[in-house]
What does this fold into?
Amino acid sequence: FEEPTGTSRSAWPVTEGFPFPKGVLHDVRPVRIVEEDGRALACQVQPLARWPDGSLRWVLLDFQTDVDAGESKRLYLEYGTDVSPAAPEQAIHIEETGRTVTADTGPLQVKAERGFLSQVVLDGESMVAEGEMIGPWFTRADGRRFRATGDPDCEVAVEASGPLRAVIRMTGRHTAEDGEQVFGFIVRVTLWAGRSDTQIEYTFV
It folds into this structure.
C-alpha cells in the first residue's frame, strides 16, 4: 500500500479486490489483513464471485490503515482455519425502513430519502435546517429548476452493508416544483466506520 499524494492519513479506508484459486476458500470468515509488525486490521470481506464448486473466486476487502505522507507499506492477507479476524473498534449502524435509510458512522449520522439527504448530523450538530433537503439541481434553458430531491417515488436502498463500509443507493427522476419530470438519476453515498467524510457518486441517466 502506498500513499501517493504526500498527505499523512489516519484510519484511511481502503477497498481492494482479491482473487483466490479454485477450492481454496469457501467462507469469508477466516480472512484478515495484517501489517508488517503483526498487528491484525479489522477487515470487511464481501464475496464477489465463486468457482463452479462453490469456493470463492473473488472477494472485496475493506479495511482502514494509518499511513504517513508518501509512505509505502506492506500488508499481508491471511486466511485459514487458524486465522482469527480482528474486531472493528467502531462499526456502522444502518437501518432501512420503507423509503428511508438512516446510517451512523460514529461522528456522522445521515438520513437518506427522496433522492438525497434530509438529515446530516456531524459531531452532534445538525448540518441541515428543519424541512430542508440537501441535493443538487440543474436549471433548464427556459429557467425551470429540476431537483433530484423532489421525486416522491424515489427508491432508496442499502446497496452494501458491513461494519466498516456501507453504500446507500437512491434512484429517481429530476422533478420541478409543479411535478414535471425529466431524466433520471442514481446517487450512491459511501460511508465508513468512525469517519465523518463520505463519497458521493451522482449519475445522470
Summary: The CA atoms of residues 120 and 126 lie 6 Å apart. The chain is about 0% helix and 55% strand. The mean pLDDT is 91.
